[in-house]
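Tokens in:
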């Protein structure tokens, strides 16, 4: 297929999905090396792709508003780019409708969500069961784009501005530029079932500080604030034990206090990120940070981080159920012990991550 002179790739909307789409996006960039390539993505997600550097960086960003109210504005933003073709990574009807409204002549994507009539090239979806990154790779492969080898990394690099914002936030908590850090992302979108227990995160934080000598930084969205407060309370209750060990814990709760740009800077600074199945998990991995990933109801075969990592699961017959809330006793997550997660964190600090089924 001939490379269009001006091509736009419409990305997924969610943080983790955008990161998992990066191998497909970079494959298109390298295929489109001598032509104009733009990425269209939600405005709030722009700091992610600003981490693409060198020849993998897009030529332009189209910032989308999203939602029903933003259809006309998003169509106008795409129309202004005078694109010859659009690759639609999302399955949504909306993404195809907006590209159609923008009068982009060629619109390519998966046949999904009753939108085939809006596409000029509708690709049959592969059978589910593989990794989400492979789902995006399969689309661009079907469009005759040479895809990256699965072992080839797509690395993000924090910008100087993102580093500076993270440094300023940490300085307020008396964490120095060279101080070692373990980041913890204790929240999870789309229900509580994916969350490990707050008291176990607190115990992990205590041991990380007292035994490994790392500052512990909590990160997450404003919706995760109750979890952050619960971790702080549980840690405060164990403060006497921490003090008796001869070393206190420097816990910095930045949940709800960072935008995505600052989060990129923070995660790029950490020695390890311990996380539920979240966007922060994927972002830390893309930044080249070791990740301890805790999986319960979600399927690690579909959404595990792409880089080397410690993958923690507890084998029970009912997982992966993909439910937002557990109707029984949350055994897939309660079966993951603090000792095991702490050991995984310590292994990551020595550069020896491994997948673990408990």
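Residues out:
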């Amino acid at each position: 297929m001939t490379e269009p002179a001006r091509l736009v790739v419409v990305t997924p909307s969610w943080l983790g999905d955008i990161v998992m789409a990066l191998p497909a996006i970079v494959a298109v960039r390298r295929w489109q090396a001598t032509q104009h390539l733009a990425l269209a993505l939600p405005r709030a997600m722009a700091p992610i792709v600003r981490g693409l550097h060198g020849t993998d960086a897009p030529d332009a960003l189209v910032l989308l508003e999203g939602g029903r109210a933003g259809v006309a504005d998003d169509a106008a933003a795409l129309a202004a780019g005078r694109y010859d073709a659009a690759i639609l990574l999302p399955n949504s009807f909306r993404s195809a409708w907006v590209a159609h409204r923008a009068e982009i002549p060629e619109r390519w994507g998966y046949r999904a969500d009753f939108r085939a009539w809006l596409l000029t090239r509708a690709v049959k979806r592969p059978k589910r069961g593989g990794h989400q990154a492979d789902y995006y790779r399969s689309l661009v492969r079907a469009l005759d784009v040479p895809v990256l080898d699965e072992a080839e990394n797509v690395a993000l690099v924090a910008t100087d501005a993102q580093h500076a914002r993270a440094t300023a936030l940490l300085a307020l908590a008396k964490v120095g530029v060279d101080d070692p850090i373990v980041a913890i992302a204790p929240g999870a979108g789309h229900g509580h079932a994916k969350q490990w227990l707050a008291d176990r995160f607190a115990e992990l934080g205590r041991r990380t500080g007292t035994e490994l000598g790392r500052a512990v930084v909590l990160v997450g969205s404003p919706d995760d604030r109750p979890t952050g407060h619960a971790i702080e309370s549980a840690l405060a209750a164990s403060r006497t034990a921490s003090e008796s060990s001869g070393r206190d814990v420097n816990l910095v709760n930045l949940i709800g206090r960072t935008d995505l740009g600052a989060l990129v800077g923070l995660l790029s600074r950490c020695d390890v990120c311990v996380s539920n199945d979240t966007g922060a998990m994927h972002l830390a991995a893309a930044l080249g940070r070791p990740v301890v990933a805790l999986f319960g109801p979600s399927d690690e075969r579909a959404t595990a981080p792409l880089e080397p990592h410690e993958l923690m699961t507890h084998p029970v017959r009912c997982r992966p159920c993909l439910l937002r809330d557990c109707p029984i006793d949350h055994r897939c997550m309660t079966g993951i012990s603090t000792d095991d997660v702490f050991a995984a964190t310590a292994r990551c600090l020595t550069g020896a991550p491994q997948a673990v089924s408990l």
